[in-house]
Amino acid sequence: MKNLTLLLLLCISPVAMSDGLPDLGDVSQAALTPLQERQVGQQSMMQIRASKQYLDDAEVNDYLNQLGAKLVENSPEPSLDFEFFAVNDYSVNAFALPGGFVGVNAGLLLITQSESELASVLSHEISHVTQHHLARMIAGQQGDGLVSMAAIAIAILAARTSPQAAEATIASVQAGNIQKQLNFTRTYEEEADRIGLQLLQKSGFNTHAMPEFLDRLQKATRLLDSSAPNYMRTHPITSDRIAEIENRVHNQPYRLIPESLDFQLVRTKLISAQKTAPDAIAYFNDALGVQNYGNPIAQRYGLVSALLRNNEIERAAREMAALRKQAKSNQMARNNPIIETLAGQVKRAEKNDAVTLAFYRTAVQNFPQHRALIYDYTDLLLQNNQAELAVKLLTEQLTRHPRDTTLYDLQARAYAMQGNVLEQHKAQAYSYAWQGNLYAAIEQLELAKQAGGSFYQLSAIESDMHELREMLDARSKP
Q: Is residue 155 within 8 Å of residue 182, measured between CB atoms?
C-alpha cells in the first residue's frame, strides 16, 4: 500500500545500504541528496517514536508545527517538508535532524518566556536544516567506519539529544572516534544565528528575543553549580556569539508581540504534567488567587485539567463553565480548539453520552483538523458502538496525517468492532511500522493474510510484507 511504500522510500537507500556510503564528494557542500537526508532523519524519527523520548501529545506537537510552519514559509527552502515534535524531557534542549525533523524538549518550552524566544530557537534549528549543516556532518564521517545510514542516524540522534549519553551510544555502532565531530562548529552556529534572525524578522517576531534568551541561559548557568543545560553543550553559547547577535539586532525595533493563547495553553499542559494532580490543583488555585502573573485563561485551563485528573468532576464542570465564559469575552480565546477539547473531556467525565456526542459532532465540524478532538470523539463513538462513523472519520484523518499511529490504533479498534479482521490487522500493522517495530508489523500482516480476502487485498498484503522484510534486511547489513 502507498503508506508502506512511502515508509520504504524514506527508510531504505539502495546506494547507502550496499557497499558503504556513496561517494559524497566535497564535504564543504551539502553532500547528501534531499532524499538521503530525509532517509536519515526518518530513521531517527522511527526510533524516537518507538521510545519514551517522544511526547505523544497531539496538541503540543500541532502547536509546534503551526509555529514552525510560519517560520519555514520565510526560510530559504519554504517547500521543504518539516516536522516539529516535542521530546518528553524536562532538560533544556532542542535539536535538528536531517531532512527537516526538529525536536524540542519540554524543558525548553517551559524556560522560554515569550513566543518570540521559542520561535528564535526553532528558527535556529530550521536554519541548520536549510543550510544542510547536518548533511555536511554526515558526509564528513565517510572515512570513520560508519557504513550505513542507520548508524549515522543513531550517532547524530545521541549527540544532539543527550550529549552525556552519546559516547556509549556511538560506541555501540563502533564510531566512538567521531563524537567530537558531531557538535556543530562555530561557523555553523553563527550561520544558523544569522539565517534564524532573518526568519524571525520576516515572520513578524521580536528579533531581540534571540540574544535575550541566550544571555539568560548563559547567566543562569554561571549561577548554578550543576552542569550546563544540554542546549548550551549542543549549541555552544559564548559571550562573543551573543554580542554578535546583539550587534545584528541593535538597529531593529523592539517589538512587543502578544503571545498566542496556544503558547500559554501548551506551556500550562507541560507545567501540569510535571506535578501530581493535587499539587497541580494547588498550583493553579494559587495562581488564580494571586492574579498578578501569568494568563488567567491558561491558569483556569490548567486547574480544570488537574481537577479531572483528580476525579473532581463536579468542580471541574463548574470551573469549565467559568473558563468558557472567560474565553467568550476574549477574542484570542474565543473558539479555541484546545479549550473545546478539554470541555469535551469534562462532558465525557459527566457520563451523559447523548449530550456529549452532540457536543463532539459540533466541535469536530468547527475544528475538523484538531487531532486531539478527533481522538476523543472516535473513542467515544466506539464506546457507543458507532464503528461505521468512526471508520469514516478516521479514514479521512489518515489522508491528512498518514504517520499518526494513534489514528491507526483507533482504526484497528473500529474494524475489530465491525468484525473486519483483515482491515483490523492491516491498520495495526501500519501503526507498528511507523513506530519502527517492523517485526510486529509483519506479524499483523500475516494475521491479516490468514483472515482471507479478495485477490487484490491479498496481493497488496504480500507487497507490504515484502517491503517490510526488505527494510529488516537492510537494517541487518553491516
A: yes
